[in-house]
């Protein structure tokens, strides 16, 4: 049996071939492509409506309510109504 390079015509190390192809691609590019995000106009509108209250009255009322809740929790006078919690959870447990 004779062993020679007849069967290996054109056979190149596949790793070397991949490395050469990668080097050629990198030579043509200046850098890695950056990820890009595009936000639709509808999403921008929803975002702006969430962050900007309709009026300052709503904002002031909400701030007062939050402050009242913080004070009640810190003084220990905040009471949780278990019945209301149970009513809200009941449809999910059903």
From TrEMBL:
Keyword terms: Bacterial flagellum biogenesis, Cell projection, Cilium, Flagellum, Repressor, Transcription, Transcription regulation
All residue ranges annotated as the Anti-sigma-28 factor FlgM C-terminal domain in the record: 35-89
Compositional bias segments (type: Polar residues): 48-58
Region listing for Disordered, in residue ranges: 42-62
Record has Transcription regulation as a keyword: yes
Family, as annotated: Belongs to the FlgM family.
Protein name: Negative regulator of flagellin synthesis
Native source organism of the sequence: Paenibacillus residui
């Amino acid at each position: 049996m004779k062993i020679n390079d007849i069967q290996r015509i054109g056979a190149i190390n596949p790793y070397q071939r991949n490395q050469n192809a990668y080097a050629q691609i990198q030579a043509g590019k200046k850098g890695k492509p950056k990820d890009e995000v595009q936000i639709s106009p509808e999403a921008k509108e929803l975002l702006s409506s969430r962050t900007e209250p309709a009026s300052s009255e709503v904002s002031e009322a909400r701030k007062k309510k939050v402050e009242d809740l913080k004070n009640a929790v810190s003084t220990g006078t905040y009471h949780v109504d278990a019945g209301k919690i149970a009513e809200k959870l009941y449809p999910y447990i059903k």
